[in-house]
């Protein structure tokens, strides 16, 4: 009975001796994966090469997205300027086309007027009386037609000349209206700039420190100086009866003592 005890103890010891082996086995099994402590990996993790590749790919993707965003913003900023430039060019083109069309219409009207003038003068020439060998004197009817044809011919010349002058005046007035519109825009721009300048000056005046603080700070020193002057005058008494020392050194000494 007593001999069984050592064997039991030995069995127990052998049984208990299996615990370290089990613990070692568990520790070896646990050491096969990463261990965590307070949220941090304290054991071996994935290979570093794979993580570096993934980080490199993510960095390249982020760089590509950043470049795309920068290009998009550049295009968005350039679009208004480009649209404004295109609008200005289109406006100039339309103005040039309108001016060319107007010039062509004026030229065509001038040519039509000249043709009408030549046709009218040719028709009126048939009413002119030209003396011949058989017919020296004109009848009253021929005299009337001749006078009327000369009158109408003069009127045609005058009307055509006046129409040409009116066309020139119209062009001059149109040019003056354009210059007046440009001058009006310039004056408006100057007025806007003047108002902005006045507003800026008012803001600066309101933001500038007021002189009350300086006056209040300098008031004590001014009062002190006045008190000192009053004190010196009081000590001197009547300045007209003040007997000055004979020498300059004595005068300085006297002033030092009195002050």
How would you sum up this structure in a few lines?
This protein has helices at residues 4-16, 18-30, 48-125, 140-207, 211-236, 248-258, and strands at residues 36-37, 40-41. It is mostly helical and 259 residues long. β1 (36-37) and β2 (40-41) form a beta hairpin.
Care to describe what's here?
There is one protein chain. By secondary structure, the chain is mostly helical. Among the domains are: 47-81; 108-131 and 139-189. Helices cover 81% and strands 2% of the residues. The protein contains six helices and two strands. The protein has helices at residues 4-16, 18-30, 48-125, 140-207, 211-236, 248-258, and strands at residues 36-37, 40-41. Strands 1-2 form a two-stranded antiparallel sheet. α3 (48-125) runs antiparallel to α4 (140-207). The chain is flat, with a radius of gyration of 58 Å. Keywords: Coiled coil. Residues 88-122 form a coiled coil.
What sort of overall outline do the alpha carbons produce when their principal axes are compared? flat
Return the average pLDDT rounded to an integer: 71
**Strand neighbour order, sheet with most strands:** 1-2
Q: Could you state the order of secondary-structure elements as H and E?
A: HHEEHHHH
Count of DSSP-assigned helices: 6
Rg, rounded, reads: 58 Å
Quick one: how many beta strands? 2
Given as residue ranges, the uncertain stretches (5+ residues, pLDDT < 50) are 1-47
Helix content: over 70%
Main sheet characteristics: 2 strands, antiparallel
Percent range for β-strand residues = under 5%
Query: What structural class is derived from the secondary structure elements?
Result: mainly alpha
Give the terminus-to-terminus CA distance. Answer: 125 Å
């Amino acid at each position: 009975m007593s001999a069984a005890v050592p064997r039991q103890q030995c069995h127990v010891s052998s049984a208990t001796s299996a615990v370290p082996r089990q613990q070692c086995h568990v520790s070896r099994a646990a050491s096969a994966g990463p261990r965590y402590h307070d949220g941090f990996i304290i054991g071996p993790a994935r290979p570093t090469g794979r993580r570096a590749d993934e980080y490199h790919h993510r960095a390249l993707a982020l760089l590509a997205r950043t470049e795309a965003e920068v290009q998009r913003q550049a295009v968005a900023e350039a679009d208004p300027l480009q649209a404004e430039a295109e609008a200005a060019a289109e406006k100039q083109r339309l103005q040039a086309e309108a001016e060319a069309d107007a010039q062509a219409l004026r030229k065509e009207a001038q040519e039509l007027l000249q043709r009408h003038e030549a046709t009218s003068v040719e028709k009126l020439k048939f009413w002119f009386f030209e003396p011949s060998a058989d017919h020296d004197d004109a009848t009253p009817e021929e005299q009337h037609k001749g006078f009327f044809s000369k009158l109408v011919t003069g009127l045609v010349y005058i009307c055509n000349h006046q129409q040409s002058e009116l066309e020139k005046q119209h062009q001059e007035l149109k040019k003056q209206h354009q210059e007046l519109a440009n001058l009006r825009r310039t004056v408006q721009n100057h007025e806007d700039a003047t108002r902005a300048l006045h507003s800026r000056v008012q803001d600066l005046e309101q933001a500038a420190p007021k002189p009350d603080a300086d006056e209040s700070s300098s008031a004590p020193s001014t009062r002190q100086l006045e008190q000192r002057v009053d004190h010196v005058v009081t000590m001197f008494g009547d300045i007209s009866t003040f007997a000055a020392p004979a020498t300059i050194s004595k005068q300085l000494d006297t002033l030092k003592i009195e002050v």
